[in-house]
Design brief:
Two copies of one chain form a homodimer. Chain A is α/β, with parallel strands linked by helices and about 400 residues long. Chain A contains 14 helices and 20 strands. Chain A has an eight-stranded mixed sheet, with helices on both faces. In chain A, strands 13-18-20-19 form a four-stranded antiparallel sheet, sandwiched between helices. Chain A is globular and about 75 Å long. The interface of A and B includes residues 63 and 70 of A.
Chain lengths: ~400, ~400
């Protein structure tokens, strides 16, 4: 098998850990697999480099930022290759430009355009283990680019897609994707399998095991993805195309997000173009709006609520106050003590009544729902922040997530 | 003017120092010069990276060593460019491969073969200050190479040669090249000008202001070199072609070297091929031999002495003992409490009697000469180590090196 593996910064955070990673890689090589391995910078190293840059400028040149910060991965790939060679395995490290990881020129958040596979294939044919720097690439002009934080996951998936690898394994410090945060729900169960779509909803909601862009990429190119722990040999969670089996399950997981804040505009005149008037200036200020709720109007007025990232609430409120005055709304309210609790599952598509179970469960536990938003495979409720853990636990119970789904359920 | 400047690791050793270097570069830019600037890794950084590598392997793969260690300069060029941009100057950093610094594949000690000037010239034409990573290059296969310690000087000279720069300035923490080590001879005088040949003899003898290979390179391509301090705006020392003026000066400087040890073989049978028998095995063991003295033979036997680096003496003695037995010599003696004191000057070529003055001066001060070796522009004497400082001082006096050479002397 051709396997692409990715090890994060914690996995290569010290020389001892690098040796561990090398032993793990060697084990797979011994089993007869061809291996392409992506590694992140040693834990702490990227922060050190970023601090140097911002020590010189609050608004550093993005090209030079990438020039500096990309060295973190260059160091770790060299070290992993050295550790493997020391163990008697033939390995070679390749930076983003050496491998031909072509990106656009959007420094600090570049997107991968194309991956040259010629060099990697040549080295694989020679029996070498190929270690590729994550997080980085090269643009058309020969400038070094970086993919933004967490970009090493995307590097691994892009390599797997380009090489048509049999498997892309993302190693992290958890055993896989869980039905809920195990710190909140001790009974949370590791999922054996989850669909790309579900993973996307989980990731964006705070289950931070995988970089969201890497999942999009995997979905687009149909790369079989596995998230597993670098500390043991447990099988992890497979992230793959939706299949019949998955659809039988009502809900795959419960997630939450405490990093949002709610803003409401009272008595907005219900005229065409009003929503644009409100959200255009927010967009211009680069404020990301998540949920938007507008109820039917009464007497030509409506209430409009939305959520933004908590650290952008102040800025957003200032903008919205001005707009509210302009359009003749009654006033603006805001609240940063909220949380969003969501249930995710492709089974919702074919099983009606999932929302009703969620609302009843929250009501039975005296948890008031402030906002509701739904998608095909997700239902989110905004509630008072202090009930977050309780809500996650009772929902986990209500959908029996601690139990392995039964055949034909 | 097109000026190539090089700043060492101490000059960019902290963010504060990087800002200082940026201000200095900006000053030259303000004066209307075109600037290409080479920087070393931040002081301590190369050692940190080397330690990481040797923490994994006592004999690391040289290609991977270069992959890791070359990141030090990549960080510092990015930071210098950021500091310049922050001051409002247009700057761009280029790694060895981005600039097209082509080397052979001798990792850890690569030699520069060719420098692409196209990219640099394009950026200069755009008014940019071009910051180039010292110490590194790229081989034909696209592997990163390093030039070995001190290689940033060579990078600067190679750039100056390829760009046909008007000047190559090497910035360091001393004001220039002195007639002797100022810590030993407080009256030591900074030289305004010195020939490439003299500098080569001085450098190899321990006046460690300049990497010796960079001087060879400058001599070969006739690059006007200046060594000066990054801490002030003093003019420094010009290193250039020998001229009439220089030839009038008997001696330019006095240097010493305490890092050698002496080995003597007593009563070597004086047969053809004997020297080869002795020095071949040393060469095979990678031991560098410096001075070799063989006196005329008596009764078909001769004594043979030579010096090696002090930390290689033990290894050398072991080898030589074996050889001595094989060839039937009387025995081997060694001494690591010696020093080599040398006077250097192109004027020696045309002024007889310089050696005599040196020997008499040492004799007058009761300093015994153990070995003598001469070249066209250098006379070296091996003496007891404890007299080193005294010898340097009395020779400095004897040749009036504290006084500016008079016109027509």
């Amino acid at each position: 098998m051709l396997i692409v593996q990715k090890y994060g910064g914690t996995s290569v955070g010290s020389l001892e850990r690098i040796k561990n990673v090398a032993r793990r890689i060697a084990k797979f090589k011994d089993e007869g697999h061809d291996l392409v391995v992506t590694v992140s910078a040693m834990a702490g190293e990227t922060n050190r480099l970023v601090d140097l840059v911002y020590g010189l400028s609050d608004d550093p040149d993005p090209r030079e930022y990438d020039q500096v910060v990309s060295t973190g991965e260059q160091v770790s790939i060299g070290l992993v290759a050295i550790a493997l060679k020391e163990m008697g395995y033939d390995a070679i490290s390749l930076t983003g430009w050496q491998v031909g990881m072509k990106t656009d020129s959007a420094h600090m958040k570049a997107r991968i355009l194309d991956v040259d596979t010629e060099k990697i294939k040549k080295y694989l044919k020679e029996g070498k283990i190929v270690i590729v720097a994550g997080f980085q690439g090269i643009d058309e002009e020969g400038n070094i680019t970086t993919l933004g934080r967490g970009g090493s996951d995307t590097t691994a998936v892009a390599l797997a897609a380009a090489l048509k690898a049999d498997l892309c394994e993302i190693y992290t410090d958890v055993d896989g994707v869980y039905t809920a945060d195990p710190r909140i729900v001790p009974k949370a169960r590791k999922l054996d399998k989850i669909s790309y779509e579900e993973m996307l909803e989980m990731a964006s909601l705070g289950a931070k095991v995988l970089q969201i862009r890497s999942v999009e990429f995997a979905m687009k190119y149909n790369v079989p993805l596995v998230v597993r722990s670098s500390l043991n040999f447990n099988p992890g969670t497979i992230i793959t195309k939706e299949d019949k089996e998955m659809e039988k399950v009502l809900v795959s997981g419960v997630t939450y997000n405490k990093n949002e804040a709610k803003i409401s505009i009272r008595r907005v005149p219900d005229r065409p173009g009003i929503a644009a008037k409100i959200f255009e200036p927010l967009k211009e200020a680069n404020i990301n709006v998540d949920m938007i709720i507008q109820n039917i109007s009464k007497d030509g007025y409506t209430d409009l609520s939305f959520t933004v990232a908590r650290n952008e609430m102040k800025k957003a409120v200032e903008i919205v106050k001005k707009v509210a005055e302009e359009i003749g709304a009654e006033g603006v309210e805001w609240d940063d003590t909220i949380a969003k609790v969501s249930i995710v599952g492709v089974g919702m598509r074919s099983h009606p009544g999932v929302a009703a179970i969620m609302f009843k469960t929250l009501a039975d536990n005296n948890i008031n729902i402030m906002m509701i938003s739904t998608s095909e495979i997700k239902i989110s409720c905004v509630i008072d922040e202090k009930y977050t853990e309780l809500a996650v636990r009772v929902l986990h119970d209500a959908f029996n997530l601690d139990k392995e789904p039964e055949e034909g359920e």
